[in-house]
Structure formats: C-alpha cells, structure tokens
Amino acid sequence: MSTQSFNSAINISAKRTPKVNNEAAGTAVAASLPELWYPGTYDSQRQKLIPSLVELYNAAGNIVRAAVAKSCDATVLDLGAGTGLLANAVRASVPWCEIVLMDHSEPMLAKARERFDTDTHVSYILSEFTSLDSHHEYDAVVSALAIHHLEDLEKQSLFARIKNAIRPGGVFVNVEQVCAPRDDVEELYDEMHVAHVQRAGTTAEEWGAARNRMKFDKPAPMYSQLKWLENAGFQDVDCLYKNFRFATIVGWV
Questions:
Q1: Which of 83, 120, 157, 219 could form a disulfide with 148 if both were Cys (CB 3.0 to 4.6 A apart)?
Q2: Calculated CA dihedral for residues 138, 230, 103, 28, nearest 10 degrees
Q3: What ranges do the domains of the chain cover?
Q4: Do 239 and 60 touch, CB atoms closer than 8 A?
C-alpha cells in the first residue's frame, strides 16, 4: 500500500496534524484507543510507531553512562517512565546505578515492576512528573516521549526544575517528539513517519488511532528546546540523535 493510500485508508492526510486543546475531548479520544496504550502492548507499539527507537534510547543510555562513569552510586530519575522502556536502556548501559521511575499511571508502573522484578536498585514514585521538586538529588534525569504533552511555557518551567534536581556534572536526556520549523518540512516528517509505520507492519487502524492521539501533542522545535535548556541554566546542550520528528536531546549541568 502506498503512503497516500495508507493515509487515505484512515482518512488522514500527511500534513501537519491539527491540534486540539479540549481536555474532555482528549480524554474521550484516549478512552477510544483500548489496545494502543495498554501497558501490556505499549512496548511493542512503541517499536512499530517510533522510527529508530532503539538508536534513540541507546543514545540516551550511552550519554548517561558517560556522565556517571566515575560515580559508583549514581542515581537516575526517569520522568514519565511508563513501563520502564527507557529505564531498561539506561540499566543496560549503567548496570550499577540506582534508577527511580516516576509516572502518574499505576498500571504503567505495575508493568515496570514486572520488568524490574529482580532488580533491587529500582524504585518507583506514583506522581505526575510535573510535580518534580528536588535539589541536586540525581546524577541524571531522563525522559522519553512525555514532555511534549506540556505547553511550551510548562516545558520551560520543567526544564528549570530538572536542572535544579541534577547534581553538578550530571546530565538531562530527553528522547522527544519534536515539530519542524517549517510546514513543508513538517510534511516531510510525516512522510518519513508514515513510511516507517508501514515498514513496521502497523495496521491502518493502529496508525489512525496514533494519529488521533497525536492531535493532543504539543511538540516544539528541537532548536527551541535546546535554547530553553540553555535558558534554564544547562552549561552545554546538544542533539545526540535525530530521525525527523524524533530526537535525543541533552543538557549538561
């Protein structure tokens, strides 16, 4: 099936997805996606829906390892941790660190507990990640595909609180969905995204559900986010890996 036919099958064009700000409507859409966001199927759906997922997550794990290599008791906080997919990449790169998973969803954290069932160096916080209020408590803070749900001013506020939560010499790594700086490039992002989900065997129904969910996302351009990190006080910033609308963004304290 061609990209155009694939989009036609779900009645969604490969153009910038319209944004919807109605919270009640967002809840209704989320409730209509029973399979897509269940903890039991979340990880497999990530693989099908996110291009270069392994590379994005491995880049995050590698930069955390580089940042905490000299610390024998490093602590890493995962914001919006979900089922622990990113935390698992961190654990693979940094087997000696303590990992704290924060998420507002008990079912997601329950799945994470299954993943780390025998790992005594993983703990859990049931809370919205926007509640973060720590001071130099962590050697690294990581997040994946969560912060783009916030408005831009909320992102900037959170970046400042993340910076305050990290010890000197630490790092913040954000695997994130970003938007393009131009509409024509956003259309290219869409084309490449659709090509990936087709290759991954995503059904038109699954992609349609994902596209409906994306209407409630609030992604920001990568370069805006790098600037916001600088404004929050991070000493150096970079993009370690990028595949069109998905990027691994880093700030060092």
A1: 219
A2: 180
A3: 33-179+219-252
A4: no
* Beta strands 75-79 and 246-252, pairing class: unpaired
Q: What is the pTM of this model?
A: 0.86
Burial (CB count within 10 angstroms: exposed 0-12, middle 13-18, buried 19+), residue 57: buried
> Which of the 8 DSSP states describes residue 130?
G
- Judge whether 51 and 193 are in contact, CB under 8 Å: yes
Domain 33-179+219-252 homologous superfamily, CATH: Vaccinia Virus protein VP39 (3.40.50.150)
Residue 250 structure tokens: 């880093």
Q: Distance between CA 193 and CA 92 in Å, rounded?
A: 27
Angle CA(109)–CA(44)–CA(154) in degrees, nearest 5? 55
- Element holding 171 (H helix, E strand): strand 166-177
Taking each helix axis from N to C end, the angle separating 204-214 and 183-199, rounded to the nearest 10 degrees, works out to 150
The pLDDT tens digits of the residues spanning 186-202 come to: 999 999 999 999 999 98
Residue type, 171: V
Q: What is the pLDDT of residues 89-143, one digit of tens each?
A: 999 999 999 999 999 999 999 999 999 999 999 999 999 999 999 898 999 999 9
Burial zone of 104 (CB within 10 Å; 0-12 exposed, 13-18 middle, 19+ buried):
middle
Looking up tokens 């995503």 gives: 202
The structure tokens listed for 206 are 């699954």
